[in-house]
């Protein structure tokens, strides 16, 4: 009896999908018992609704079918059954709409794709539907990645070769120290500088990419701090768009608004960090970094200052600021001119100590904090060093002026002096502490 | 940061009724919206019932923040937002809405008014406009006469209930909530306690 009913509901579901090919959302309708003599499957405005009372009927029924297709009965014993592709599609669909993390069901669908009973695009559409009800289902995202790989492999094997950027994309960009040393050397600039493949076409189908990014966006919207959605998005940019310069820039500007409306979303900010790190790898020469990458970081600093002051008390923003500052530091250290080495001259201990101890810290950072050093520490020797360091600076002062250690510390002081939000004051304090630790190391904690 | 509901209520002798409500439930699933709306009304009503005239309070309930301002004349407003939405803007908006409502709807209509008898259509507009708190930027800067220290913060709806009262019972007893919404409440509760 129950089996029969479950079977009927499953075919109702199939009919619904046939009649409404554009169903774009699925949801459950809270309903403890079957109250009316009608189907629990409803379609309204292209939204598919399933009344909750029937879930406990259809799920075991469909799940059993799925297991049997795997040649196992309920107790895990092997059995011999062959099913038609159609009935497998129906059963896995019912299971996944209810329980999106059923890997067995997704795997059966993978086999159906391989046997060409199911098209990749169709299944992407279905998986997108599942995500409207289960926006942080990791198995659904994993299945999407598998499907996308199938599509990308097909297209690359026929036409495109892997771009040089994708090979570089796995090194950790600026953060990796080995690139810092070679940064100013004669590595030819890539796409971004317009020399090699600047106007090159996207390494993938634009529409495919667009749809995928939209799916990530809607999942992130449905569930706050949706780690799965944002890591999937990063994967898409890396593996489908091959970290194409145009896409990175577009994503950076597209997520800007989103971030301004989701100021406590760590995952979203982390995605921006991914974009910025990947962008950095596009600028190989010191000039490119300075002229094109630094302005991006400046913009990020400005965005953060704006959000931090307008909406106090959100930890995610402060942590993102640490990342931007780190990037800033490494860029400046790369832009530093290596040849003007006259450090052996006048100043002695302090300078050599600083340069040995903190090779990653550019002189400019000290330069702009000079006044605070001399005021706070009354260390004239250090001050002298700092001034000398400044002469070595090759970086355009227009950029360094704004976001040096000094201006960062000033932001902290301002916030701590004026903000009435206790949590915000603590966040500013911990950022200040982090800056001091980072720049000065253990030896100069007196600042 | 999001605003979900903005309602104007009237409180007299600890009885509360809804005069007008505006909702933005786009971010909820299509089939959930009905129940979510009923619960927003239900919650707003409970909070106004339990808070004193002349007080400002914010009740945190899961990831939602219910900001409530009841004037001494019994007119009250509740704004349900997420936790990112700035509290100061929320209360400035409530001030503004109640002032506007007083101007457009004569006070003698309040005691017996309801959504059908009262003609006030501004709430949806306010909600839409203030979805972006920057709209209120000038207000954010003014640091208006609102003193944040006077806003009472409750950590849950249970915290505003009277001793011995239970939210589950109130939900079960409520005549304004449909069977579907009550089921919705139960399943939602099961899910949150399971996590």
From TrEMBL, chain A:
**Gene Ontology CC:** cytoplasm
Q: Name one Pfam family in it.
A: PPTA
Q: Which SUPFAM superfamilies match?
A: Protein prenylyltransferase
Give the Gene3D superfamilies listed for this entry.
Answer: Protein prenylyltransferase
Mind telling me which InterPro entries this protein's record contains? Answer: Prenyl_trans_a
Which key words are in the record? Answer: Prenyltransferase, Repeat, Transferase
Chain ranges passing through the membrane: none
Q: Can you tell which superkingdom this protein's organism belongs to?
A: Eukaryota
Family assignment from sequence similarity: Belongs to the protein prenyltransferase subunit alpha family.
Q: What is this protein called?
A: LOW QUALITY PROTEIN: protein prenyltransferase alpha subunit repeat-containing protein 1-like
UniProtKB/TrEMBL annotation, chain B:
Q: Where is the V-SNARE coiled-coil homology domain?
A: 138-195
| Longin domain boundaries | 8-127
Compartment list: Cell membrane; Cytoplasmic vesicle membrane; Endomembrane system; Golgi apparatus membrane
What InterPro entries does the record tag this protein with? Longin-like_dom_sf (IPR011012), Longin_dom (IPR010908), R-SNARE_YKT6 (IPR045848), Synaptobrevin-like (IPR001388), V_SNARE_CC (IPR042855)
**One Gene Ontology cellular component annotation held by this UniProt entry:** cytoplasmic vesicle membrane
- Sorted UniProt keywords: Cell membrane, Coiled coil, Lipoprotein, Membrane, Methylation, Palmitate, Prenylation
- State one molecular function term (GO): SNAP receptor activity
Q: What main location does UniProt list?
A: membrane
Q: Which GO terms describe its biological process?
A: endoplasmic reticulum to Golgi vesicle-mediated transport
UniProt membrane topology term: Lipid-anchor; Single-pass type IV membrane protein
Q: Which Pfam families match?
A: Longin, Synaptobrevin
Q: Which PANTHER family match?
A: SYNAPTOBREVIN HOMOLOG YKT6
State the family it belongs to: Belongs to the synaptobrevin family.
The function of this protein is:
Vesicular soluble NSF attachment protein receptor (v-SNARE) mediating vesicle docking and fusion to a specific acceptor cellular compartment. Functions in endoplasmic reticulum to Golgi transport; as part of a SNARE complex composed of GOSR1, GOSR2 and STX5. Functions in early/recycling endosome to TGN transport; as part of a SNARE complex composed of BET1L, GOSR1 and STX5. Has a S-palmitoyl transferase activity.
Q: What is this protein called?
A: Synaptobrevin homolog YKT6-like
């Amino acid at each position: 009896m129950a089996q029969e009913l479950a079977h009927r509901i499953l075919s109702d579901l199939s009919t619904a999908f046939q009649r409404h090919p554009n169903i774009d959302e699925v949801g459950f309708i809270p309903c403890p018992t079957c109250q009316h003599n009608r189907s629990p499957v409803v379609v309204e405005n292209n939204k598919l609704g399933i009344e909750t009372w029937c879930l406990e009927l259809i799920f075991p029924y469909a799940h059993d079918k799925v297991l049997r297709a795997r040649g196992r009965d309920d107790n895990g014993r092997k059995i011999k059954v062959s099913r038609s592709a159609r009935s497998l599609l129906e059963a896995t669909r019912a299971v996944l709409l209810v329980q999106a993390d059923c890997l067995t069901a997704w795997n059966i669908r993978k086999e159906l794709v391989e046997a060409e009973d199911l098209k990749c695009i169709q299944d992407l559409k279905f998986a997108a539907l599942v995500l409207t009800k289960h926006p942080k289902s990791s198995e659904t995202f994993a299945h999407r990645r598998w499907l996308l790989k199938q599509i990308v492999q097909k297209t690359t094997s026929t036409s495109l070769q892997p771009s040089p950027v994708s090979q570089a994309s796995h090194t950790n960009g600026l953060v990796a120290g080995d690139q810092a040393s070679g940064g100013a050397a004669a590595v030819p600039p890539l796409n971004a500088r317009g020399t090699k493949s600047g106007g090159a076409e996207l390494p993938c189908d634009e529409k495919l990419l667009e749809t995928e990014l939209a799916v990530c966006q809607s999942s992130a919207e449905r569930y706050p701090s949706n780690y799965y959605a944002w890591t999937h998005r990063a994967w898409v940019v890396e593996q489908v768009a091959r970290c194409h310069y145009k896409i990175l820039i577009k994503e950076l500007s597209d997520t800007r608004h989103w971030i301004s409306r989701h100021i406590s979303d760590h995952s979203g900010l982390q995605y921006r960090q991914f974009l910025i790190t990947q962008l950095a790898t596009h600028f190989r020469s010191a000039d490119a970094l300075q002229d094109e990458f630094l302005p991006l970081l400046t913009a990020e600093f400005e965005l953060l200052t704006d959000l931090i002051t307008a909406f106090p008390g959100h930890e995610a923003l402060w942590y993102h600021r640490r990342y931007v500052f780190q990037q800033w530091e490494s860029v400046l250290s790369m832009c530093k001119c290596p040849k003007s080495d006259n450090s052996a001259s006048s100043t002695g201990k302090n300078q050599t100590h600083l340069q040995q101890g903190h090779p990653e810290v550019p002189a400019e950072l000290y330069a702009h904090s000079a006044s605070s050093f001399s005021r706070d520490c009354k260390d004239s020797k250090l001050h002298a060093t700092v001034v000398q360091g400044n002469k070595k600076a090759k970086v355009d002062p227009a950029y360094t002026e704004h976001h040096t250690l000094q201006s960062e510390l000033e932001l902290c002081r301002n916030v701590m002096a004026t903000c009435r939000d206790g949590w915000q004051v603590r966040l500013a304090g911990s950022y200040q502490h982090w800056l001091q630790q980072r720049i000065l190391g253990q030896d100069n904690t007196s600042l | 940061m999001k605003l979900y509901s903005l309602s104007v209520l009237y409180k007299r002798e600890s009885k509360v009724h809804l005069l007008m409500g505006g909702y933005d439930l786009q971010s909820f699933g299509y089939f959930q919206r009905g129940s979510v709306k009923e619960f927003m009304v239900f919650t707003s009503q409970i909070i106004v019932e339990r808070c004193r005239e002349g007080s400002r309070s914010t009740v945190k309930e899961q990831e939602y923040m219910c900001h409530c301002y009841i004037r001494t004349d019994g007119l009250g407003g509740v704004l349900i937002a997420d936790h990112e939405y700035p509290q100061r803007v929320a209360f400035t908006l409530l001030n503004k809405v109640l002032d506007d409502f007083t101007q457009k709807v004569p006070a003698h209509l309040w005691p017996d008014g309801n959504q059908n008898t009262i003609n006030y259509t501004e709430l949806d507009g306010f909600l839409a406009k203030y979805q972006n708190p920057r709209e209120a930027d000038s207000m954010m800067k003014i640091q208006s006469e609102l003193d944040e220290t006077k806003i009472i913060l409750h950590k849950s709806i249970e915290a505003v209930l009277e001793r011995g009262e239970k939210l589950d019972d109130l939900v079960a007893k409520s005549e304004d909530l449909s069977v579907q919404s009550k089921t919705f409440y139960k399943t939602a509760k099961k899910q949150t306690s399971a996590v």
